[in-house]
Amino acid sequence: MGRSKSTLKNALLSWTVISALLLLWSNGSVSQEQQKQIVLLGADVPPFSWQQDSDVVGINMNIVEHAAERLGIKVNKQIVPLKRALTVLDHQAHHYFVGLARTPEREELYQWVAPLISTRIGLLKLNDSTSSNADFDDEQHYRAKICVHYDTPMQAWLLENNEADFIAVTNEQACLKLLSNKLVKYWFTEFHLARYLIKQANIPTHQIVEDKLIMQPKLYLATSLNADSKTIEQWRKELNSMASKGQFRKFVQRYVDDY
Question: Which of 3.30.390.50, 3.40.190.10, 3.90.190.20, 2.60.40.10 is the CATH number of 38-119+217-252?
Answer without folding.
Answer: 3.40.190.10
